[in-house]
Amino acid sequence: MHGTLLAMTSIHHQDFRKEIAALDDFVMDRDGDLRELERRIGRFNVFDALGVARRELQHSNFLAWILDPSASHGQGDLFLKAVLMDILREAPPHLRPLSAAHLDGADLDGAEVRREWRNIDLMVVCKEQQFLLVVENKIDSGEHSGQLNRYEAVAREAFPDLRPFFVFLTKDGRESSDSDWCAYGYDRLHAALNRVRATTTGSLGTDVAVFLDHYLTLVESRFMESTELEELCRRIYANHKAAIDLIVSHQSNDHEDFEDLLGWLKSDDSPYFARASGQGGVWIAPRSWIGKLVDQHGRPLETSPCDLYIELQRWANDTRVSFAVRLVAGHGSEAARRTAAIAELEKIGVRTPRQITGKWTRMSSQTLKTWKTDETVNSKQVTEAMRAWLAEWSTQLEAAPRVLANLMAVPAKS
Q1: CB count, 10 Å around CB of 169?
Q2: 326 in helix, strand or coil?
Q3: Contact in structure between 356 and 341 (CB atoms under 8 Å)
Q4: Which of the listed residues 27, 40, 241, 342 has the most CB atoms within 10 Å of its CB?
Q5: Residues 178-219: tens digit of each pLDDT
Q6: With the C-alpha atoms ordered 259, 393, 308, 177, is the resulting torsion angle positive or negative?
Q7: Helices H, strands E: what count in the chain?
Q8: pLDDT of 43-66, one tens digit each?
């Protein structure tokens, strides 16, 4: 017995030394990747310094300023036209209040910008050109029940003579629950503002240019995909996996709201499993999809037409914490097969948006539970609501591999 304890102690000390060595190698950063990552994400940014990087109100305030032709940036309707033109490109033809040609030659200097008018995030009233831009801005929060319908009714009643243009602005350009709203992403907004920034070098005042540059950097680093940044992170993890896993294992639980749900998903009686989880949500796949659409980890097979999964997401703003669920069609190797897959899912009752995006198309979205920010989230109620949704959609989820079978690519012969 004494010999066994000594052997166990020796093994423990060996493991401890390995962990310390891994941490030392990580901290010394011999390859310089950590310094490069810090350089990319650690630069001073005025929005970070003010603590408003992810606050919807402050983002809407900035947009109201940059889009206002009479604002102190001194560029008239230049920014407003650029952003409007880009949204028009994204919008289905039946939603556009005017044509691109009309906008190009229009004078928008008389446009009036309103903030939080009757709870609408951002509104641009352009009486000369007879249209109304209504923007609902969502960063880390989801739709509230009937919210968009109420804003539509308010705008149409207040401005019956203006053609309304409803825009749902989000980090990833996801669709709203209302087909009258045009989906628009922060990546597109960044591109539109960046084009103006590039063409106004020298004409912008120094203060305005610096302020705009800080905002563009903020959006790029917080809300947009970056292939270079992803590759850098993958390389750091590959070189320092032991140290990073050790650090993560000693952190406090970042997803307490999902603790009960994750416990159920790991149990033997659950027909579903979590392919990933984090503070912002849980990403789920049915076990019946394994070998048909996904691998054992929930990732798409090479032959799958797209990355299909269930997303339970936590949204929060200054007043509410909400949990929303939807079926997501993510990236696919071929756009045509991905689009065809979404069409097939629609045939079995999956609610698909009118506008299909090329990255993530969220379908059958539903808000499950909502709490006020000063209330404690009940993780068991989150699980109950999620299990009820899965039960309601079990027929469609079970049918997905069958209806998508004809779209599975045939592996090339070696």
Answers
A1: 25
A2: strand
A3: no
A4: 342
A5: 889 999 988 899 999 999 888 887 778 888 888 888 888 878
A6: negative
A7: 15, 10
A8: 656 566 555 555 667 778 889 999
Distance CA 399, CA 1 (A): 57
Mean pLDDT computed over 29-44? 64
Using the structure block, give the residue that is written with the tokens 């995909």: 225
Q: Do residues 185 and 176 make contact, with C-beta atoms less than 8 angstroms apart?
A: no
Among 343, 269, 345, 335, which Cα is nearest to 310's?
345
User: In terms of pLDDT, which residue wins out, 340 or 353?
Assistant: 340
Q: Which residue has the higher pLDDT, 61 or 286?
A: 286
Structural domains of the chain sorted by starting position, each given as residue range(s) with its CATH number in brackets = 49-223 (no CATH), 256-407 (3.30.1460)
Where on the phi/psi map is residue 410: left (φ > 0), alpha (ψ -120 to 50), or beta?
A: beta
Q: Are 102 and 136 in contact (CB under 8 A)?
A: no
The per-residue b/e assignment along 300-337, b for 16 or more CB within 10 angstroms, e otherwise, is bbeebbbbbbbbbbbbbbeeebbbbbbbbbbebeeeeb
Q: What tokens were used for 43?
A: 């630069």
Report the half-sphere exposure of 363 (CA within 13 A, side-chain side).
27
